[in-house]
Amino acid sequence: MTPVQPSIDTSTFYMWRCVIAIAHADGLVQEEERAYIQKILDNLGRLYALTPEQKATFARELDAPKMQSISELLSHINDPATRADLIYFGGLLAYADGVLDPREEEILKKLRATTDMAQIHTHVKEAVADEMFRTDLARDAVRPQQGLCAILDRLLLRAGIDLLD
């Protein structure tokens, strides 16, 4: 499979390095956390043309005995959407072993505090509205337009029943 993008952007590269650092927060990368990260790294290799140095960085940091400085890594993540992704994927990782360690929780709180959540909420609302619009257009294209089926479809819609859901 040819990568979708020729290379991974700086914000995304550092975001995944932060996720790896979160795995180290409790002092031990649990097997569930390692499996979660490895699955992500495998998929990143399919999406992006990762350089050998980038792959080596991910592997080295995953196997390192201690975590990288999250504040240093975070300074390279300038894209608001990528910061939102970090909060999301970092949270998933923190719960991957079934236990939210207080050190992981503290990192997630700091990440939320240093991220413009209002901007992220606005971005998410716009993305959801755009997706709903595209879904409605696609749905309308397959709705019956004439005849008995069209009449029945309109009556059911007025009653709150959408057969295309």
Overall description:
With 165 residues, the chain is mostly helical. It has two domains: 10-115; 119-158, no CATH class. The protein is 68% helix and 0% strand. Helix 1 (10-23) packs parallel to helix 3 (52-63), helix 1 (10-23) runs parallel beside helix 5 and helix 5 (80-94) runs antiparallel to helix 6 (102-113). The longest helix is centred in the last third of the chain and has 26 residues, at 117-142. The mean pLDDT is 85.
Topology:
Elements: H1 10-23, H2 31-47, H3 52-63, H4 70-74, H5 80-94, H6 102-113, H7 117-142, H8 147-158
Helix pairs in contact: 1-3, 1-5, 5-6
Radius of gyration: 22 Å
Mean pLDDT: 85
Instruction: Give the distance, in angstroms, between the N- and C-terminal Cα atoms.
Output: 33 Å
- How much strand? under 5%
Main attributes of the structure:
single chain; 165 residues; mainly alpha; 2 domains; 8 helices
